[in-house]
Write a structure and sequence with these properties.
single chain, about 200 residues, alpha/beta, Rossmann fold, 4-stranded mixed beta sheet, 6 helices, elongated
Length: about 200
Amino acid sequence: MSAAREEILRRVRAAQGRAHAPSSRAYRTTGTRDAAERDALLHQRLVDYRARVERDLVVVLDELAASRIGVPPGLPADWRPANCVEDQGLSPQELDALDGVVTGCTVAIAETGTIVLAGGPAEGRRALTLVPDLHVCIVRADQVVETVPEAFAALRGLERRPLTFVSGPSATSDIELKRVEGVHGPRRLVVVMIDV
């Protein structure tokens, strides 16, 4: 801090009757919940955000079998629905014609109910998850952390990738405060939480 700024702050504190700078907040950087508690909290938060949460990937993939579903090139074969279209640079019009998309994620934050996509091989490019009306995101148990600082630690080294933080389906409120879904991304979010 510059000497001039420190002097100004000293005078302000003295005028307010505080001689010392306030102590910094003590933010939690690590969680205290075990894996089952993190899992339950993430599930609760996602449901609060109007996401559908499932545990059986096979059931969800069966539901998608008759649909045209986009997938990123690095999505594992056993996560792909029967009628999938691999994204090899699909145009916006081609993405819009899809019924949905299935991806993985980089990390999920239990405390905030947030899924973070970092453009990895199983997540694909940002447009793939923002244009189709349905996003099915597969979250492995080992990707769930409790706090935001833990998520940022997991994202270390990925800072140059486009990060997308998803907390439920895309939603906004109009001028009359009526909730409108699907304006800036998928109208429906299905999160499949798996143990693998």
